[in-house]
Design a protein that fits this description.
By secondary structure, this protein is α+β, with helices and mostly antiparallel strands. The protein has three helices and three strands. It has a three-stranded antiparallel beta sheet. A hairpin with a 7-residue loop joins strand 1 and strand 2. The longest helix is centred in the N-terminal third of the chain and has 21 residues.
Length: about 110
């Protein structure tokens, strides 16, 4: 009887691993790459003409997660995204963002 229960537990664990690898347990983002931003798009007056949206930070938000929500995938290198964010927000580092405050998030088309 112990062997049967052990065998069933091993089968169950293998099924869980298989399901996690093939389907995944995290919800997929329903946004598509051609989705319009949820906020109005603004442009800066600098030479690069960066487009951005103003977003208020919520718990769990990061710079990369917001950009992925807006665009679906990251099309720019992370270093470029960080430097554009700092340029738009007067040198503020993404690690210093605070919940409830509004920041300019770069948008890439």
């Amino acid at each position: 009887m112990k062997r049967l229960i052990g065998f069933l537990c091993v089968c169950f664990i293998l099924f869980i691993v298989y399901f996690d690898v093939t389907t995944g347990t995290l919800p997929k983002s329903s946004s598509s790459p051609t989705k319009e931003p949820s906020q109005p798009v603004h442009q800066t007056a600098n030479k690069h003409k960066l487009q951005y949206v103003k977003k208020t930070m919520k718990p769990g938000d990061t710079l990369l997660s917001i950009i992925e929500q807006e665009e679906g995938t990251l099309k720019q290198p992370i270093e470029s995204i960080v430097s554009d964010f700092q340029e738009l927000n007067e040198g503020l580092k993404p690690e210093q963002m605070q919940i409830g405050k509004t920041y300019k998030i770069p948008i890439y088309k």
